[in-house]
Design a protein that fits this description.
alpha+beta, Double Stranded RNA Binding Domain, about 40% strand, elongated
């Protein structure tokens, strides 16, 4: 799995990278066919926005969250991705 993290008006620190990598392990447990994940972190005034694109073989998922702190925004985005991947896997099994 390739992971790309970029920041706009925010420095992507080792702490942010580590936090994202650690939280993504939960998504990786549900799906081992993840090709690439792109994270974009943006700070605009007092708003911290996290966006992610997750690319699987045959499916793409997107999640976004804007909060007052970056770490909860990242957690929320990863929760959304995890839910989308889990739903996708469940739909594949039932069809």
């Amino acid at each position: 799995m390739r992971l790309t993290i970029s920041g706009h008006h925010v420095e992507v620190t080792d702490g942010l990278r580590e936090h994202i990598s650690k939280k993504l392990r939960r998504v990786q447990r549900h799906c081992d066919t993840i090709d690439h994940i792109e994270f974009v972190l943006v700070v605009e005034r007092a708003k911290h926005k996290a966006e992610a694109n997750l690319h699987l073989a045959g499916a793409d998922f997107f999640a976004s969250e804007t909060l007052s702190d970056m770490y909860p925004a990242i957690d929320s985005v990863i929760d959304k991705l995890d839910r989308q991947v889990t739903d996708h896997k469940r739909k594949q099994r039932t069809h």
